[in-house]
Amino acid sequence: MISRPAISDLSPSLPAPVLRRLGRVEYEPVWRAMQDFTDRRDESTPDEIWVLQHPPVFTLGQAGRPEHLLAPGEIPVIQVDRGGQVTFHGPGQAVVYPLVDLRRLGIGVRDMVERLEQAVIDVLAHYGIEGAARRDAPGVYVEGAKIAALGLRVRRGCSFHGLAFNIDMNLEPFERINPCGYEGLKVTQLNDLVNVAPGEVEARLLQRLMVALGYNDAFVEGPSNLP
To answer: Into how many domains does the chain fold?
Structure first.
């Protein structure tokens, strides 16, 4: 467990975040909506947490190198503005986009990454699985295989993009890329390690994310569509 003061100790008046459960939605409209939300928000705007799944898609980060796309085939490829290299999103993967005002929370990008990683590590620990983070390659790993990928963008002091946690999905597309730019990197998922219900895992992940980010109040449920 990473030891650090809770954000709530630093920002006792932090407003409750808005949770949006978006279901299965195409990647690009969500990406554009995150950009728009970040550009329009101000210092009084509550943070938002978007939870969703994407249809199959490869995304290349800002520094993404095309040679890490080995054989994308029929799966679309989108160049985006997050950090990191190439990753895959698909059904059965819990995607969480924390749209967070880092300045208001008083934390930097590295701390934000570590808090997201810790939330996943805590969920894994609940199921008796030891997860670990790597300083040189953000994400969470189980016995060297990647189970959760992270990629953030910070604009105007606020984060968007986020994390993707492999729960019960088709892992074959990861063989068509060098995941996160690492040749031969193994990828795993939770249901290959323990039998779980995806909805239960998502709920537990959100609860641990609330703890990791220091929110005292419960989520305020937002509409289940893009704002």
So the answer is: 1
Q: Which tens digit of pLDDT belongs to each residue from 45-76?
A: 999 999 999 999 999 988 778 888 999 999 99
Q: Which residues in 3-127 belong to E strands, given as ranges?
A: 18-24, 48-53, 57-60, 77-79, 86-89, 93-99
Give which of 104, 144, 96 is closest to 123, Cα–Cα.
Answer: 96
Residue range 105-127, pLDDT digits in tens: 999 999 999 999 999 999 999 99
Distance of alpha carbon 179 from alpha carbon 200, whole angstroms:
27
**Tokens standing for 192?**
């290959």
Q: Is 180 noted as a catalytic residue in this protein?
A: yes
**CATH at residue 83:** 3.30.930.10
Q: What is the pLDDT of residue 136?
A: 83
Among residues 80, 76, 34, which one has the least CA distance to residue 55? 76
Catalytic residue among 180, 205, 206, 213: 180
Print the domain residue range for 83.
7-215
